[in-house]
């Protein structure tokens, strides 16, 4: 580790205990998945139509729900460990941009920031444009996935906006094991090496008021199309999407 590593991480690296206030959980991680500095990063730009403070409050709920967003990494004795931190405070930096050119410089600077040991691998930036528009930039270090997490986080954000409970989710440990097993045959790094995947942009759906939800049309029928593809992984990658990861409760 570097000489400026926080003391608490040096302590965790030397002791690697499973109890205490410094960490919530820890598990071995395959070296093929974790390497400093990060091999891959993903920046997601989200336009904000509501109060930025409400968005920040919602952003804090993401790491509370998803422990993978509170994970940092250690390498004692040539063995990688993913350590889940107990706190879920978001890391947010504010930027002012006078125009499109300055905004591009800000995004490039955010993109080049390296992963910091002892901090969650998700970072958020708020860009205040000259016309008053607010934009959020979400940066994920260590792209250990092929885009599935982005869809999961998007679904959770929409649940938060509607004050609905999120569906049962897969634990960080189970998800990392799933990625490690899949990497034995096909590296997820290849997904992020595609030029159209860096960065990924999507529009965060605005929340609906309770009155608007009550006034929505009643659904009387539904049609479910069948995808005539047995190789769903191949089909999803060809169309720029990923197959959802769901944990069975049965």
Characterization of this structure:
- The protein has 250 residues and is an alpha/beta fold.
- It has one domain (22-209, 227-238): Chloramphenicol acetyltransferase-like domain (Chloramphenicol Acetyltransferase, 2-Layer Sandwich), CATH 3.30.559.
- The chain contains eight helices and eight strands; from the N terminus they run αββαβββαββαααβαα.
- The chain has helices at 7-15, 52-65, 100-112, 148-161, 172-183, 189-192, 210-214, 232-238, and strands at residues 25-29, 41-48, 71-74, 80-84, 92-97, 122-129, 134-141, 200-201.
- The strands form two sheets. The protein has a five-stranded mixed β-sheet with strand order 5-6-7-2-8. A three-stranded antiparallel β-sheet has the order 1-4-3, sandwiched between helices.
- Strand 5, helix 3 and strand 6 form a beta-alpha-beta unit.
- Helix 2 packs across helix 4.
- The protein is globular and about 50 Å long.
- The relative contact order is 0.17.
N-to-C series of helices and strands: HEEHEEEHEEHHHEHH
Subunit organisation of the chains: single chain
Strand proportion, as a percent range, falls in: 15-25%
Distance between the termini: 42 Å
Largest sheet: 5 strands, mixed
Give me the CATH fold name.
Answer: Chloramphenicol Acetyltransferase
Radius of gyration: 20 Å
Mean pLDDT rating: 64
Which of globular, elongated, flat, extended, rod-shaped describes the shape? globular
Question: What name goes with the CATH superfamily?
Answer: Chloramphenicol acetyltransferase-like domain
**Top-tier CATH class:** Alpha Beta
With strands numbered from the N-terminus, the spatial order across the biggest sheet is 5-6-7-2-8
**Count of runs of 4 or more consecutive helical residues:** 8
Counted up, domains total 1
Secondary structure category: alpha/beta
Low-confidence stretches: 15-42, 246-250
* CATH architectural name: 2-Layer Sandwich
Q: How many β-strand stretches?
A: 8
Q: Percent of residues in helical segments?
A: 25-40%
């Amino acid at each position: 580790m570097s000489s400026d590593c926080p003391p608490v991480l040096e302590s965790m690296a030397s002791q690697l205990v499973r109890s205490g206030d410094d960490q919530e959980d820890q598990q071995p991680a395959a070296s093929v998945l974790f390497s400093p500095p990060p091999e891959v990063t993903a920046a997601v730009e989200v336009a904000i139509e509501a109060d930025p403070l409400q968005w920040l409050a919602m952003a804090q709920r993401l790491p509370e729900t998803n422990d993978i967003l509170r994970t940092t990494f250690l390498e004692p004795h040539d063995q990688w460990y993913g350590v889940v931190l107990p706190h879920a405070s978001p890391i947010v930096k504010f930027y002012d941009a006078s125009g499109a050119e300055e905004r591009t410089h800000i995004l490039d600077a955010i993109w080049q920031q390296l992963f910091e040991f002892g901090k969650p691998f998700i970072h958020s930036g708020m860009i205040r444009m000259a016309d008053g528009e607010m934009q959020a930039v979400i940066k994920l270090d260590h792209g250990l996935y092929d885009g599935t997490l982005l869809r999961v986080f998007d679904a959770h954000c929409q649940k938060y906006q509607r004050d609905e409970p999120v569906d049962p989710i897969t634990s960080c440990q189970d998800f990392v094991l799933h990625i490690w097993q899949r990497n034995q045959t096909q590296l997820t790094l290849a997904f992020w090496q595609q030029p159209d995947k860096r960065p990924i942009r999507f529009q965060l759906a605005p929340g609906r008021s309770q009155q608007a939800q009550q006034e929505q049309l009643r659904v009387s029928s539904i049609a479910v199309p069948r995808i005539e593809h047995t190789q769903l992984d191949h089909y999803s990658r060809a169309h720029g999407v990923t197959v959802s990861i769901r944990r069975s409760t049965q």
